[in-house]
């Protein structure tokens, strides 16, 4: 549904006035102009879709003008100007435009979600590559130095365990009393955890 208002500047052909009054009567303007306008508008507007009516408004107006001038000559009228002054669409068209905008925004949001997922995937790949490179560096260092890195880590773990046991109240230390008598190198000392 489209509503169009036209501005029409017209006049009767002066040399055809007697014929005009004889054929159409004195109220010719009220009978002829609305019928010509409706007929021409329907035939011209039907050739365009809603988008073209908006984007090609000047072209549509020019076609309406030329068609109305042709039709008016048969009724002994001259049109000086014909122009579209008002063009609106029905509620269905406005709803369709709104739905199209909403769909467009949703499509843009989906593209953003896809880009974000792609960036997250690239971050995971980069992190995994870094971890693989770190593992490779540790492996090469172990090949060069032997088990020294493992021994350092064992010592660090032993220090951590010793610190935890030293602060615990349920630990008993039993020194080794058998052996050479001076207590050095005679045997292994025993540390017991008495947790329930």
From TrEMBL:
Chief site of localization: mitochondrion
InterPro entries to which the protein is assigned, alphabetical: Band_7, Band_7/SPFH_dom_sf, Prohibitin
Keyword line: Membrane, Mitochondrion, Mitochondrion inner membrane
Location relative to the cell: Mitochondrion inner membrane
An annotated GO BP: mitochondrion organization
Ranges where the Band domain occurs: 2-120
Record flagged with keyword Mitochondrion: yes
Pfam families assigned: Band_7
GO cellular component, as recorded: mitochondrial inner membrane
Domain of life: Eukaryota
Family per record: Belongs to the prohibitin family.
Name under which the protein is recorded: Prohibitin
């Amino acid at each position: 549904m489209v509503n169009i208002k036209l501005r029409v500047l017209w006049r009767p052909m002066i040399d055809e006035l007697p014929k005009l009054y004889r054929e159409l009567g004195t109220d010719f303007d009220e009978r002829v102009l609305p019928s010509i306008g409706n007929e021409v508008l329907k035939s011209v507007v039907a050739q365009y879709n809603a988008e073209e009516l908006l984007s090609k408004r000047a072209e549509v107006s020019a076609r309406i003008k030329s068609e109305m001038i042709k039709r008016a000559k048969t009724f002994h009228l001259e049109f000086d100007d014909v122009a579209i002054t008002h063009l609106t669409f029905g509620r269905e068209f406005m709803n369709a435009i709104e739905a199209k905008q909403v769909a467009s925004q949703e499509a843009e949001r989906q593209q953003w979600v896809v880009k974000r997922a792609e960036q997250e995937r690239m971050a995971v790949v980069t992190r995994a590559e870094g971890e693989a490179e770190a593992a490779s560096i540790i492996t090469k260092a172990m090949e060069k130095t032997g088990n020294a890195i493992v021994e350092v880590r064992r010592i660090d773990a032993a220090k951590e365990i010793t610190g935890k046991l030293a602060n615990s109240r349920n630990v008993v230390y039993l020194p080794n009393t058998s052996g050479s008598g001076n207590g050095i190198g005679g045997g292994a000392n025993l540390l017991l955890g008495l947790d329930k």
